[in-house]
From TrEMBL:
Name assigned to this protein: diguanylate cyclase
Xref: SMART domains: GGDEF
Organism expressing this protein natively: Dyella lutea
Keyword match RNA-binding: no
Class of enzymatic activity (EC top level): transferase
Upper classification of the organism: Bacteria, Pseudomonadati, Pseudomonadota, Gammaproteobacteria, Lysobacterales
PROSITE patterns assigned: GGDEF
Length: 390
């Protein structure tokens, strides 16, 4: 069945335009980095559609205008996709690199189309520009097929891999074939297949892009559900998951996990004196002090209003008491200034160590809680071990 490049291009233009419109309208309300990236992708599709539109109208356009205009639109759309993917992933945008690739690609292709016409060199030059953009995308998506929760990155990586294969095949057939065409509109099997597949590419890439958007939103939701919004540390739920993980690991290699339960002393007074906002600032500063004392691998989380849990793998009783004492002393000796007034805060800490014979987090929490209660009763601003209060 004879297939005309113009007809295919028209179909591609309609498809890219429809996809772009759907993405644009579907994300029109709302703000944020991810939505902005989708809208940029939608605009890129509209630009891509214009490129295919030019190819469909080639009978009415001079060949050099087609080369100059068509490639300008194509390369512009590719540059926009590079930026959109990077924006979606939160990677550096590489605007300058994308613009340089686009400009050099367009200038070379235009030269080899209008001034010194050479179709094979023109395709090769344009392919190098496409290769540059694809490599930028692959770099942003790197590692996508390694982890289970980054499957959408993997899908997009495959789409770009197929694009590279298509480029290779097109150039190979041009340089090695016996009767190479002299422009993309010549209806040779290679050209028809190239326009057909490259026309489907926006569809595949858009689906991949939406999958990626979904993956990123899912991860953001996952994180949001596990972060305390006031202090930015793990919340009770995340600490529950972290303690299960840590205890299971330590149990595997017969190690230990230290548990610190820390409560700000007389916090009600701070709220009464400085207001709830002032109290919030004190809690944020307190978290900063705790974090400054932790080793890598230790985790702090907020498990109550002014109550924090620290998990420290691989420590023994003495090490844990030393860590607790360092935190207590740091808080006591670091006066904070709220609304221009100095605030002295102290904390009470209860400790417990998980090890052979005691791996149950509920029991550990209860022991640390009892030690904390003992520290409060003994006058506050002190560390108590569950061993001493057992
Ligand atoms: N600013 C602020 N205050 C909070 C927050 N969550 C809990 N609180 C306050 O923390 C105070 C806790 O008071 P209490 O449980 O009586 O304990 P306390 O005054 O610290 O006394 P002790 O623990 O016995 O030393 C209450 O006033 C709560 O309103 C919060 O997110 N922000």
């Amino acid at each position: 069945m004879p297939v005309q490049v113009e007809t295919l291009s028209l179909l591609n233009a309609v498809q890219a335009l429809a996809l772009g419109l759907m993405l644009w309208v579907g994300t029109h309300s709302g703000n944020g980095r991810a939505l902005a990236a989708i809208r940029l992708r939608a605009l890129a599709l509209a630009v891509e559609a214009s490129g295919y539109g030019l190819l469909a109208l080639q009978a009415f356009i001079s060949p050099s205008a087609l080369v100059i205009g068509g490639n300008a639109l194509n390369l512009l759309a590719q540059g926009m996709v590079v930026v959109a993917i990077r924006q979606l992933l939160g990677e550096p945008l590489r605007l300058k690199t994308a613009a340089t690739i686009g400009f050099l690609g367009w200038a070379g292709v235009s030269w080899l189309g209008a001034v010194y016409p050479d179709y094979r060199l023109r395709v090769l030059w344009g392919s190098c520009a496409i290769l540059g953009n694809v490599l930028l995308n692959v770099e942003a998506l790197r590692g996508g097929c390694r982890e289970r929760d980054t499957r959408a990155r993997c899908v997009l990586l495959w789409v770009y891999l197929l694009e590279l294969a298509l480029l290779l095949w097109r150039n190979g057939s041009l340089w090695l074939g016996s009767h190479p065409p002299d422009q993309v509109a010549t209806p040779t099997p290679v050209n028809v297949f190239y326009v057909l597949l490259s026309g489907m590419q926006p569809l595949f890439a858009s689906i991949g892009f939406l999958l990626l958007y979904n993956e990123i939103l899912r991860r953001e939701l996952h994180d949001l559900a596990r972060i305390d919004p006031l202090t930015g540390v793990a919340n009770r739920r995340a600490m529950g998951e972290a303690s299960d993980r840590m205890l299971a690991e330590a149990r595997g290699w017969r190690g230990s996990v230290g548990v610190l339960l820390l409560d700000a002393d007389h916090f009600k007074y701070i709220n009464d004196r400085f207001g709830h906002d002032g109290g919030d600032k004190v809690l944020q500063a307190l978290v900063g002090h705790i974090q400054s004392m932790l080793r890598s691998g230790d985790i702090v989380g907020r498990v109550g209003g002014e109550e924090f849990l620290v998990l420290s793998p691989g420590v023994d009783e003495a090490g844990l008491l030393a860590l607790a004492e360092r935190i207590r002393a740091t808080v006591e000796n670091s006066p904070m200034v709220i609304n221009g007034e100095p605030v002295r805060l102290t904390v009470s800490i209860g400790t417990a160590v998980a090890g052979p014979g005691g791996w149950d987090m509920t029991v550990l929490r209860r022991r640390a809680d009892a030690a904390l209660y003992a520290a409060k009763r003994a006058g506050r601003n002190r560390v108590m071990s569950s061993e001493a209060t057992a």
